[in-house]
Amino acid sequence: MKLQKQLVIIAMLTALTVVLSLLFIFPVPATNGFVTLAEVGIYSAGFLLGPLGGFWVGALSGGLIDLFAGYPQWIVASFLIHGLQGAVAGYFFQKNPKWLHGVGFVLASLLMVIGYAIATALIYTWPAGVASIFGNVIQNIFGASLTILVMASIRKINLPLMKEGPR
């Protein structure tokens, strides 16, 4: 895929992820954070674009969501955590056999949950870090489930992007 086309797709998926996340944002007062649908966009980008696209959509959308939602203290952590989450997911989503896709969901989700627990503990306190775990696990389960439905729908309509990806 040409670089220009890939950059446009990354920008579009980032914008879609930010908008989707800001439309459905659920504050969590215990951690001074929130739960969103960001994982749907991040995991979808990993499926469609592989690890590099997953990284950039995760990193950019994670940082922008925090900026626009009024949580600037999380921008750097979200950039790194969601970027790595998208890269790990994208790496495993490229692999065959298909059961490795499940490994990608699990490892990327663990990276996100543990990353935010550590970041929350560093920014606030360790009890807040522990309190963040439940919400982030739920966010990842819901996001992975929706991503599976989105990818199944994209495959049914035979979206050309699926043929152009790094698979």
List keywords for this structure.
167 residues, mainly alpha, Arp2/3 complex 21 kDa subunit ARPC3, two-stranded antiparallel ribbon, 6 helices, 2 strands, membrane, transmembrane helix, Membrane protein
Explain the overall architecture.
- The chain crosses the membrane at residues 6-28, 40-65, 71-93, 105-127, 133-154.
- There is one protein chain.
- The protein has 167 residues and is mainly alpha-helical.
- It has a single domain, classed as Orthogonal Bundle (Arp2/3 complex 21 kDa subunit ARPC3).
- The protein contains 6 helices and 2 strands, in the order H-E-E-H-H-H-H-H.
- The protein has helices at residues 3-23, 38-69, 75-93, 99-123, 126-156, 160-164; strands at 26-28, 33-35.
- A hairpin with a 4-residue loop joins strand 1 and strand 2 (33-35).
- Helix 2 (38-69) crosses helix 5 (126-156).
- It is globular and about 45 Å long.
- The termini are close together.
List the total number of helices: 6
| Beginning-to-end CA distance, first to last residue | 11 Å
What is the percent of helical residues?
over 70%
Poorly predicted runs are: none
CATH topology: Arp2/3 complex 21 kDa subunit ARPC3
Task: Trace the largest sheet across and list its strands.
Answer: 1-2
CATH class: Mainly Alpha
Q: State the order of secondary-structure elements, H for helix, E for strand.
A: HEEHHHHH
Strand content: under 5%
